[in-house]
Hints:
The complex is a heterodimer of chains A (385) and B (123).
Chain A: H1 14-71, E1 78-79, E2 86-90, E3 99-103, E4 106-110, H2 112-187, H3 196-225, E5 232-235, H4 236-248, E6 256-261, E7 267-270, H5 272-289, E8 293-301, E9 304-311, H6 344-354, E10 358-362, E11 370-377
Parallel strand pairs in A: 6-8
Antiparallel strand pairs in A: 1-2, 2-4, 3-4, 5-7, 8-9, 9-11, 10-11
Helix pairs in contact in A: 1-2, 2-3, 3-6, 4-5, 5-6
Chain B: E1 3-7, H1 11-23, E2 27-31, H2 34-39, E3 46-50, H3 58-67, E4 74-78, H4 83-91, E5 96-99, H5 104-121
Parallel strand pairs in B: 1-2, 1-3, 3-4, 4-5
Amino acid sequence: MPMGRGALPGAGGSTTSRLGRGLFVAAVVLLIALGVWWIVLLDRALNTEHQLLRQSLVDAAAVHAARLRASRTLPPPGPFADDARFVVHHGAPAPDDVGAPIEPPLRLLATRATTADLEAHYARKRLMLAGEGVLLCSLLLAVVAMLYRLFRAERRFHEEMEGFLSRVTHEMKTPLAGIKAVLQTIESGRMPPERLVELAGRALRSVEREEALVQNLLLAQRLRSGAALAAEAVDLAGLLRAQVETRADIPAAPVRFELTIAQGCRSACGDLAAIRSILDNLLDNATKYGGGTVTIAARCEGDRVVVEIADDGIGFAPGRAESLFLPFVREAGGAGTRRGTGLGLWIARGLARGMGGDLHAESAGEGQGATFRLALPLAPEGAIA
Amino acid sequence: MRRILLCEDDDLIATMVALVLEQEGYAVDVVGSGEAALASAGPYALYLLDINLPGQTGIETARALRARGTLAPILMLTSQSDVGHKVSALDAGADDYLAKPFELPELLARCRALLRRDERSAP
């Protein structure tokens, strides 16, 4: 759509989006603030502990010095016999010495080994703190990244749902408008009698279009809830012929279908309603995006029956094949708009896989057509009466 | 007889709108895309444009019509009834907006009103 959501200021879910963005930013700021606060707090506690340990050495030296002064027995310079942590020093202390004066020039100082142990302990604690800080920052970053991903996923889901609901509403309103116009014309007595049957038939096809849409929505719900699908022999050839004939009956059909079914590959094992829905979605897709001719070929590959639906339409870039099967994704079809809810291919693949089969798409590139390959378990020949 | 161009890609809606307009005495040309609408030989007294069209949208078509000097009134028909779409359509040059599924008498009344307004404003 040329006019995107949010074209009108304040419209749609922009208030919710702003609130969500604000909460996300607040959570990130709070987390970072908590992390910084925690690191600063630990660093201060570590420094305090370091100072206390140094002070405890000074206090111990002061107690020893006071006891020596009281006993009037001055020890000789060298190792202090009463406490191996200290040494009796003669002369001025170095700036980083820890200790207390006994009686000038004698001082009781912590040995180099004692201060080295103290500093080593402090260094180990700091290293531990740095490691914890890095770990905490990493955890915070991981939490922030996770929050960001959740926030982005929530916002994308919200936008997709908005777009999806808008498309579903449009898809339902358009056939309704046609049906209503037919009925109003009949009711008002303005319907030309010679056109009644033709227009009633077209209104009926619009009703069928509504039915198919509702069926798709119900199937989407079944897929989401994980409901099991039946596994019975289904006349695949008959379904394919019926699908092609229904489309050939539409006046001014934009696409011509060519169907070939290999011998012995007429039936599949699965759920009749699910297979019908898959074919419906694939052929609708070919009608929307295909060119003039769509070839449908059913053949056997081992224990599977493979249905290839190839068109010569707008195609897609080869790297985009898988994204076609994501819910709510639609081919833009160049600059224009296309009908559809964006659920068809997602439902079709989900149903195929639910029956033990699969669905893939390939294209040589934009403008070069596309091929959808549906594989289903092959039912034994003769399983269909 | 006044000519109206109806640009609508849904075949049934196009048929029914054309039918009732012709019963009202208008000559109606029906096209299925914005490109076809721009290529149609006018002049038309009124344009009825669907917004969701394959290829060029109705809004782009309305903008293109105004850009080439078309003064005839434009009535947009669409199933998108949100304010954003209405504002975009009116800003692109549309004179009125009718959401699907619409009542045919209302559509006819709006067409008459737009044509009357156009007559009054004609020099």
